[in-house]
Amino acid sequence: MSIRIGTIGSGKIVEQFLTAVKNCQGVEYGVAYSRTEERAREFAEKMGAPASCHDLEGLVHSDLADCIYVASPNSLHFQQAKAALEAGKHVIVEKPAVSNLGEWKILEETARRNGVFLMEAVRHVYDPAMDAIRRGMGEIGTVRRASLRYCQYSSRYDKFRRGVVENAFNPELSNGALMDIGVYCVRMMGELFGYPEALLAHGIFLKNGVDGAGSILGIYPGMDVELSYSKIADGKIGCEIQGEDGTLVFSGVARPGNVALFRRGGEREVLWEEEDGWNLEYEIRTFAGWMERGDLRAADYRRALEMSGLEMKILDAARRQMGIVFPADGKGNQRVWHMI
């Protein structure tokens, strides 16, 4: 079975995704979409797509795309993914999948109704390092604290400091540090510990009202989880999960990297060593496996949908505390966001 991919977007993440596609047997690039004909054609030639288009309807009905990968600005994800799902295309949508939980519920229902698969591309979820982390958690006794960090100075922040606001720092596009980077921390917390019984969130805001950094404290019975994320400063400390009998240490959340277990007695055990290259291949291979099996009720697929919903629920709760409101939150069909 050969799966043909159509893409929406022409940024760096799309190039990295398509590089990963080349390393995935049975998956190939079919058609490139961009808002202008010239940009679509240039990107198709650069990345090796046999066709291009600048009309969304043409893309979602193209015979050269079985699956659409959506990597446009965050605020466009919902409408573009929904159009693809309604056209009977499978969809991989970059994180954050949508602006709020209400939009995610609509996408889930649209995918179910049309008998197609939907994935949020949160790459660490499908990285084997996550399995190593879960195994390690079984070796460190009762977990008391986790510190999950992703602080990376954005290449676009230099322009912002000079007064040029690009998409990454435009809150009107459902952007900001929480949605662009903090989402990785939120998803890992949800994957490992579920929804917290209480949550405290604080954001650091820039002059145009966008959040440039922030912290979230997830409170669980007998433990807490600290999330730290930033687009305006670099972090040099990795992540750790502290248990009564040992501590797990790993490089980060988007790319967990090497995972090591330190037992209370002082012994160190390497549970996972990072392989070369990006870890995008794992999500693509997982999605291809779902399509090949064709089972929309499969437990691993259903869990992935559930975890994306939980992630959006946490993001919505954190945004309410920080006062972050997007244009998408005011739509009539997004009343769910205000009710949670």
Automatic annotation (TrEMBL):
Gene3D superfamilies: Dihydrodipicolinate Reductase, domain 2 (3.30.360.10), NAD(P)-binding Rossmann-like Domain (3.40.50.720)
Spans through the membrane: none
SUPFAM superfamilies, per database record: Glyceraldehyde-3-phosphate dehydrogenase-like, C-terminal domain, NAD(P)-binding Rossmann-fold domains
Domain GFO/IDH/MocA-like oxidoreductase, residue spans: 138-248
Domain Gfo/Idh/MocA-like oxidoreductase N-terminal, chain residue ranges per copy: 3-120
GO molecular-function term, one example from the UniProt record: nucleotide binding
Protein's name according to its UniProt entry: Gfo/Idh/MocA family oxidoreductase
